[in-house]
């Protein structure tokens, strides 16, 4: 019998291996991120000072859009050959299955973000290296919010009509607080200002969001998967 | 019997609304804002009615997951639809007030933004329901989403409050100086909205139950 963490690890490694062999979600997500970055350059003057101020927001919109592509595939990948039924029937808890998938998505979305970030820095003249350790922390926390909510909703929407539309429709409004916090913090950090004073409450808010939604997802995932 | 009770409740709601509308029309205009100020007698009660609806929707969703009784699912969807209508009324009345006082229909102020996010959350709930065919799955998934949405509401409200605020501070229950008579009208209007909400919810609930009965009859017919 595998322990809970071994079960999580098995699911996570399996998902990552499947994704790295085809690279379909990651490639699509990266290409999509680049296209949105290009589109933004038409919407805003990229070298304008105001664009630099809203760059935190732009960056997280790119991450949220690109991340959804990865998350959409997470459970949809299990549909051919009824793999999802087999996984649910496997002698592991729904929570382990969910956590394994969420962690695999987390790694993939973070990878896409870490590639998109320097590209963003080059195209928009943003100094993302100035406060990199703190920026990386915000990235870790914000991305976990995105993946944990995205993964549970990916399970909710896997076999319904209009899956590709429903996932972002459900995910983004729920994510508003976390995304807003991440945007506020990132906007400050890319202009070289470290997190201080008022910004700390945003950091706490994202941490709180992560904790609450991870807990609720772990409680409800069994209901979602088994019914 | 149930029909008569429902009609009686509906009539009571209408009578209260008529009484309040006449009363509000009789009040003097506010010194700075003029007649448009009176919209608050409707704006605030519909917002509170919408909040009640969200709470009942959560109860219905949790009860469904615990008991698997479709009655609770029907309650959850009915009350969510009614709540969404109340919240829409709140947004619209607020928007009209904003157009007159601020000169703009919409501003990205804290309360407006949070109300819009809540509206989108519960609209997502209804969209999710429409996308799922199988009744048990629909009820389960919708209940799960409803719980997520309800937990999100306070976080949304607090976070957006930190973000910015431009909305006028609460007039009722906020320590302002308001004639007692006005409080009574506001409270009576809240009562009217709650009664209206109950009537609409119960009517919708029956529709939902009839629909389920039709579906099950249809399935039985197909089975033969």
Summarize the structure in short.
Chain A is mainly alpha-helical and 227 residues long. Chain A has helices at 4-22, 24-43, 49-53, 55-76, 83-89, 94-124, 132-157, 163-190, 199-226. In chain A, helix 7 (132-157) packs parallel to helix 9 (199-226) and helix 8 (163-190) packs antiparallel against helix 9.
Question: How would you describe the overall organization of this protein?
Answer:
- Chain A is mainly α.
- Chain A has one domain.
- Chain A has 9 helices and no strands.
- Chain A is globular, with a radius of gyration of 18 Å.
- The mean pLDDT of chain A is 89.
- Chain B is mostly helical.
- Chain B has one domain: Up-down Bundle (Four Helix Bundle (Hemerythrin (Met), subunit A)), CATH 1.20.120.
- Chain B is built from 6 helices and no strands.
- The longest helix of chain B has 44 residues.
- Chain B starts with a helix and ends with a helix.
- The mean pLDDT of chain B is 85.
- At the A-B interface, α7, α8 and α9 of A face α4 and α5 of B.
